[in-house]
Amino acid sequence: MTRNDTIITKMEHVEESLKDTLYRVEVIERKLKTKLLTTENREKLENELEEVKEVLRRNEKELQNLRKENSKSFMIAACLVFVCFLIYGTYLLIFGNI
User: Fold this and answer.
1) C-alpha of 55 from chain center
2) Rounded to 5 degrees, what angle do the CA atoms 67, 52, 68 make?
3) Is 45 exposed, middle or buried, given 0-12, 13-18 or 19+ CB atoms closer than 10 A?
4) Cα angle at 11 between 5 and 15, to 5 degrees?
5) Alpha carbon distances (Å) from 3 to 9, 10, 70
6) What residue spans define the domains of the chain?
7) At what angle do helices 7-33 and 39-95 cross, to 10 degrees?
8) What one-character-per-residue DSSP string does 32-85 give?
9) Where along the sequence do coiled-coil regions lie (predicted)?
10) Average of pLDDT values for 57-84?
């Protein structure tokens, strides 16, 4: 992700990564359910599953932080719009006809 990406773009990237990671978890779990695996292969898959789940947790945490940041940006924009309408309303009361 570049520095110029918007919060929404970053959220889309993280959501895409989450989908890919969830798919990978499903594939690994399906492989683990088969009884034809050797002990060595099963351990490798279990280790890989733990690593993928860690990536999944990090991405979920990042997505949560991005959503929080996005809501802060929205609140700032909403406050600015409110202040503009307040100033305009005050201007009309003082100088103009309503």
Assistant:
1) 13
2) 10
3) middle
4) 135
5) 11, 10, 16
6) 7-70
7) 160
8) HH-S---HHHHHHHHHHHHHHHHHHHHHHHHHHHHHHHHHHHHHHHHHHHHHHH
9) 35-72
10) 94
Tens of pLDDT, residues 8-37? 898 999 999 999 999 999 999 998 888 788
User: What's the pLDDT band for 3 if we cut at 50, 70, 90?
Assistant: low
Distance CA 26, CA 18 (A): 12
Q: Tell me the pLDDT tens digit for each residue of 34-62.
A: 878 888 988 999 999 999 999 999 999 99
pLDDT of residue 6: 86
Q: Position 13: which residue type?
A: H
Please give the pLDDT value at position 34. 83
